[in-house]
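[recover] target loaded
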């Protein structure tokens, strides 16, 4: 009997450690500040291009898509608002919105998205309220595991610039 109790307590403590991940550890390019109602998506994209080329490609990407609005361009960055992104977890019933900033350096650019909300026809939620525990100290692992990998894939596809195809075979 004693061995069964020990085995159960080991299992419960191990499953608790797996199901509750501290908020200060990134989760699929999403990071949070423990105790604060703040979550941020940040990803660095590596590309074999100059700053000028990256800026040109990003401008084309942004101007060619309806998900971007209120875009401002600076010397080596741009910022604005994204919307019309529908996570598959919600069967396209909720729209992800947020503020984005792209900082450009030679050979890479960094995307940061903050202030993310999930807007539905009836109600809206801040993303951190959905994927974090009620005290904002830990990830709500079940929801984070269901939503964040899909959002990471979607945002990566949206913000990846394509290299120009060469006419030389």
């Amino acid at each position: 009997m004693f061995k069964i109790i020990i085995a159960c307590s080991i299992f419960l403590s191990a499953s608790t450690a797996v199901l509750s991940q501290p908020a200060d550890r990134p989760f699929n390019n999403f990071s949070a500040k423990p105790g604060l109602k703040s979550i941020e998506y940040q990803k660095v994209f590596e590309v074999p291009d100059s700053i000028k080329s990256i800026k040109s490609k990003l401008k084309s990407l942004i101007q060619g898509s309806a998900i971007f609005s209120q875009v401002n361009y600076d010397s080596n960055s741009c910022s604005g608002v994204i919307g019309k992104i529908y996570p598959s977890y919600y069967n396209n019933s909720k729209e992800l919105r947020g503020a984005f900033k792209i900082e450009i350096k030679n050979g890479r650019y960094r995307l940061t998205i903050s202030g993310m909300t999930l807007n539905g026809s009836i109600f809206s939620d801040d993303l951190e309220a959905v994927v974090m525990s009620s005290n904002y100290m830990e990830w709500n692992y079940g929801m984070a595991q269901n939503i964040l990998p899909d959002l990471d894939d979607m945002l990566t596809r949206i913000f990846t610039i394509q290299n120009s195809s060469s006419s030389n075979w």
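[recover] notes: The radius of gyration is 20 Å.
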